[in-house]
Amino acid sequence: AGGGRPAGGAQRRTPIGWISLGLTSLSAAGLYVLYRQQLALKLSNEKVVGSAALGGPFALVDAHGREVTDESLRGRFVLLYFGFTKCPDICPDELEKLSEVTRRIDAAQPRPGGVDAHGRAPIAPVFVTIDPARDTPERLRAYFGAPPQPPAVAAAAAAA
Fold first, then answer.
1. Which of 14, 105, 114, 127 has the fewest CB atoms within 10 Å, i.e. the most exposed one?
2. Domain range holding 19?
3. Per the annotation, where are the binding residues?
4. Given its phi and psi angles, is residue 22 left (phi above 0), alpha (psi -120 to 50 degrees) or beta?
5. Residue 62, φ and ψ in degrees, nearest 5
6. Would you list which residues are annotated within the binding site for Cu cation?
7. pLDDT digit string (tens) for 54-64?
8. What CATH number did the domain enclosing 71 receive?
9. How do residues 135-152 score in pLDDT, each as one tens digit?
10. Element at 140 (helix H, strand E)
11. Closest CA to 144 of 103, 111, 106, 96
């Protein structure tokens, strides 16, 4: 009856198995702690400068050289689209969608004459250029005067 096995067929667990399990667990825990520290360090290194200034007064110049301000749009739903006239593909498609949304809303909410008490449409879609140095009022007029740009969208650039 020898053979180096304990009686009853039970195997003896070696200390190497427990040591391996312990080292693996410690390594995994250490890697997790290191990951969390690196993540916290990365987040703490990001600098936040102020906060977004949403809303407030603004002044734009439309394609005809007239000033467009927050006051001139007050009381209306304003749909802003930011783009530029050198945009060959996406901008015309998105402007057509914007115009279609405006037409659908107008059709669903008919008003006498299609205007409010001040003679203005209650929805004001506005194209705001992100390239005001190049998108002058003349260029905006040319861009919106050529098909397929919808006439329902007012073009505007940052005021000088």
1. 14
2. 15-45
3. 87, 91
4. alpha
5. -80, 180
6. 87, 91
7. 778 888 888 87
8. 3.40.30.10
9. 888 888 888 875 545 445
10. helix 137-145
11. 96
